[in-house]
Amino acid sequence: MPRELLVQVSPEVAHHDEQLYPHIAKLIQVPVQDIQKIVVIKRSIDARQRTIKFNLKLHVFLTGEPLVVNKVELPNYPNVENAQEVIVVGAGPAGLFAALQLIELGLKPIVLERGKDVRGRRRDLKAINRDGIVNEDSNYCFGEGGAGTYSDGKLYTRSKKRGDVDRILQLLVAFGATPDIMVEAHPHIGTNKLPQIIQDIREKIIEHGGKVLFETRVTDILIKNNEVQGVQIQDGSTIHASKLILATGHSARDIFELLHRKEVLIEAKPFALGVRAEHPQQLIDSIQYSCDFRGAYLPPAPYSIVKQIGGRGMYSFCMCPGGVIAPCATANGEVVTNGWSPSKRDQATANSGIVVELRLEDFKPFAQFGPLAGMEFQKDIEQRAWRLAGSTQQVPAQRMVDFSQSKISSSIPKTSYVPGTQSVEFGEVFPGFLTQTMREGFVQFGKSMKGYFTNEAILHAPESRTSSPVRIPRDNYTLEHLQIKGLYPCGEGAGYAGGIISAAIDGEKCALKIKEAIG
């Protein structure tokens, strides 16, 4: 059996075996030549002190001991071409991992995706960035892989109780992700690498008898006697099945509206909304690492910050070190921001959503929309921002200190947001309570992170798609909708996940419950 060690070492030692092996040999008091292999199990950075250290969890194999390295392999998927069919609406992480799990269980997934495949999406992303043209079915939110494919690929989750995180990470590695995602405390694939992994998952689904249909938007869910019968798609044709996993993501407003029209039970859900803040990455490095230059062995620094401002939480969300801000509107007449990083996180800027928690009572001005009140609140801000920035995909922008002092910024430098910005006072974009919370909050952020509160930081509005504004209620045990038999609300769009990993876990859970129900 290998020895398991928890050690703290310098960044240089952590990155060089020729330094790590002698260090561990001295620590366990053996000659260095007696160490056969050191396997890093977990790695994280401790930047709380001026001298930055790496925390390593290691397995140390001595000479003569059997060297056991766990090999990551895909399950032995059967061919399900002639098996019972299950409709999966949405090819994001929830839908794709549900499909894989269905195949593993001997069921045939029919995956319906309104958007294009990963390669086809690229033309539409170029159009929204360069020309301000929004394809309402193919954009940063809709298409193969869902919102995560072209918005970073972060794999960190606090949802350990939701399910087996390691299983999802192992599957991703088996499909081509770097094994480092099994080791890093905050794993990340990168927007440049995730598309190929998503494509390989799709090909595996098809290879084993499943179907994946792109540019296939669901326009109706067929229900009889409160039981699912199938779906209708945009060309008027129908696909029949008695089990349906609804994994459409947090921005599929047409699905929320469809359910509401059909009097299928849904409910408004609190979410968070705010801005996306961009700083020079070097500034964030200097704050987090307490040094002028981070050097060769430290990654671009992230940050995480939470404050209570007037009884509301204000916090960083989806922080992207060495990343850029992207236009994530899903309809014409609105602007939405999000952030992403390439795998190397080598861009000159860092950005993060800075958002404020909302409550159901905040949606009272939209009460006439019933359970869609939060969605209409969200939509109103996105449309107002679009008009204020000139009715293009440019977004309202303001320097951070100027915003906190209610001053229009006299100039906005070029930022990573490609469509561009317009100087706007954010008090015109957001409701008063939200504006005031953020004004006070940024000042408080600056007290915790010296140097963060600066006019070098440019705020972009709005960051509004943090999570679904609607929950589709389901039974806690069966995961079926409370009213409609055979309907399985799933993932972020249904209100049961918050990121790639938790959505994938939820997709698998729904597939398992369908198998259990079928018997």
From TrEMBL:
GO terms for molecular function: oxidoreductase activity. Pfam families: FAD-depend_C, Pyr_redox_2. Residues 85-254 form the FAD/NAD(P)-binding domain. InterPro entries: FAD-binding_protein (IPR028348), FAD-depend_C (IPR049516), FAD/NAD-bd_sf (IPR036188), FAD/NAD-binding_dom (IPR023753). SUPFAM superfamilies: FAD/NAD(P)-binding domain. Residues 270-466 form the FAD-dependent protein C-terminal domain. This is Probable FAD-dependent dehydrogenase. It comes from Flavobacterium indicum (strain DSM 17447 / CIP 109464 / GPTSA100-9). The lineage of its organism: Bacteria, Pseudomonadati, Bacteroidota, Flavobacteriia, Flavobacteriales.
